Amino acid sequence: MAFDPIEFIETKKDGMKHRPKEIQEFIRLLVSGDLPEYQAAAWLMAVIFNGLAFSETLALTQAMATSGKVYKWDTDGPPVVDKHSTGGVGDTVTLVVAPLVAAMGMRMGKHSGRGLGHTGGTIDKLESIPGFRTSLTEKEFRKIVNRVGCGVAGQDKSMTPADGILYSLRDVTSTVDQEALIASSIMSKKLAGGAMHILLEVKVGSGAFMKDPESARSLSKLMIRLGMASGRNVRTVLSSMSSPLGRAVGNALEVREAIKVLKNDTPDDDPLKRIAIEIAARLASMCGFGKIHQTRSRARSCLAGGAALSRFRDMVSAQGGDEAVIDQPEKILPHAGKILEIPSTSNGFLKTCNALIIGELVRDLGGGRKSKNDVIDSSVGILIHSRPGMKVGSGDVLCEIHTNGRISNSEAVQRAESAFKVVSRKPEIPDLFI
Amino acid sequence: MAFDPIEFIETKKDGMKHRPKEIQEFIRLLVSGDLPEYQAAAWLMAVIFNGLAFSETLALTQAMATSGKVYKWDTDGPPVVDKHSTGGVGDTVTLVVAPLVAAMGMRMGKHSGRGLGHTGGTIDKLESIPGFRTSLTEKEFRKIVNRVGCGVAGQDKSMTPADGILYSLRDVTSTVDQEALIASSIMSKKLAGGAMHILLEVKVGSGAFMKDPESARSLSKLMIRLGMASGRNVRTVLSSMSSPLGRAVGNALEVREAIKVLKNDTPDDDPLKRIAIEIAARLASMCGFGKIHQTRSRARSCLAGGAALSRFRDMVSAQGGDEAVIDQPEKILPHAGKILEIPSTSNGFLKTCNALIIGELVRDLGGGRKSKNDVIDSSVGILIHSRPGMKVGSGDVLCEIHTNGRISNSEAVQRAESAFKVVSRKPEIPDLFI
To answer: Which of A18, A77, A201, A211 is the Cys-Cys partner for A85 at CB 3.0 to 4.6 Å?
Structure first.
């Protein structure tokens, strides 16, 4: 029987299940332009209310994954791995993980988005390095990843066009927040990227997309099932995201921080370092490189011995960036015109640093986009001096605001102050990993 | 605060109530083309699940009513009335009611659709009269209605454009079947039409849009409230629609039947005659012309004395139609090439004549449209000889199929036969009025 879009919508409206073939046809027509967006929008809203069964979500994921170009990597080289972090504030993890896994003997070729959100995407961060090119042909990209072990390119528009259409539509029809739609969007891109081993970091907390651990766990399980059912090795790790992960929030500031971690110039309890090591170690273990305690210590020595930094240098150079950024990041990366320090007004312990407030402030300073065509100011951002649980004295600097005056200094200061809460007794701080 | 379409959708998705101003703004942007259809579609689907409160439905109705041209009638002439029948099969009522209310001293200027459905709309029926024009300028239309007392014109595209957009969108996004959306669509058009007294006939049963009396009553109440809250005098009447109302189903056949009723050439228990008298009588009573038993007898005498027929003749002539249709309908109206008789195969009583089966058969014979641009064959249709409850003998003709061979004769016969059910004991037949 011919596919009827109205019946398709009605099936979901009535709480019935689609057959995989129907979902394939829906995606095919959507990409060919033969199914109008208003019908897709009505269907998305019906999904918000009636959900998708696993078989439907799997069909949707695979149909989106194969709606465009699918990357295949040669199987005789090092194992190809991928990671994904569900959006959070100040997520600099990829900048450290990619060279680290390369140093450990894996390949990671990441396609990253520019992202609409608090700060720019990984691509925006890397572009704060003078000369760094993220627009790579498929051939260039493959060559860099195969030679260096890692590479980061901008979204390849010929990949998962179906997800591109649905994602944009969800954004403007209030149909973002649905587990099956979130999972299928993420996993379709991972499947099309061609990695065999995929680690998904799901962030939970006030600064993350997932506000509570139960929904994060449920999303994780679903993504694992979708990946496994598609022949990939998928694991997840849940991490806490109430305060920003790294000390830096803002594009150039995050690159500086990543370089610091890669130079092994941060303490062992630095959250960015810890999470990068954990992700790299788990991926190595998934590839059969050893038990997790073995791969963890291997990851640590790759950081400590400079192997990861060397891969980062190779990647920057291969992608046209100025290598000097590694030795003199302060000199090479752009600077904001003014730095405002926010001191603590009391003695005690830092209880929270609200990631959402910090993220929105950085966006409004010019570090993120409100709409697709906004130009990012990569020099602005916030450098946090104190982590939750740490002792602070009155007058100690809680954070620095790097600004070019996009919003008034008084507004910036007031908003930054409101993100920090200092208490008199040492607070319980949840661990980074859940 | 500025109107944000995404927040608007989200409000309904979350089961919250819109403020009237938001709904006005939504409709304004929809008509100006500044709100894309995919956002309207997502909102419509959210309405399917979370409904609209009365205040929202009223705001929607009034915003749609005033989204285009609003007719105003001079108040010193006879009262302006309107009727609406929620779609049914073989609905010829308007053709009788319009001249009848004119004869009784009211004015009825109807804008009618062509309708996508089993048979054509009132416009399609009238166009089977040679020369009859339904494309009238506003000036022509007013002049005819004011002079003759009745007139029927095609949909004025400058009226209720918002309803036009939403209605088309609902049709293709499986969001038709929602009480508030149905009521606001009907009432917006009635409000824009400018009549002060409005009688809504809501049909219930297998051949109607409303399948059960409870939902029909609920829809009626809502439409009355919407009309009254907008300063109009609104009443409803529920009628049964399991079998076709008239004997004829098909455009030219229905015109012939209407003329027969207007000539008072049908028995008093003829359903079409009964319902036309009831509607005209109720409208007259709503206008203060007397108690219902008085206006009923006035309606009967206007039919019996030829006053209604005379108004019909004036209307046909004023709208360019061939008046000879009244004296010689068989000669003037188009004929189908072949008539197939369906005889009863048993003795007994007719229990049901399934209106839906008859309606779909007439459509497939060419008498209705499946898509907007289909051309109607006004000559085809079905003439029913027996009404539910009547005695039938084996061999008695149950109905005639008037066909031009659009579908095979054997298929037409088989489908027509399946519409009739003859039983041995006299069945209980629900009254026409509920």
So the answer is: A201
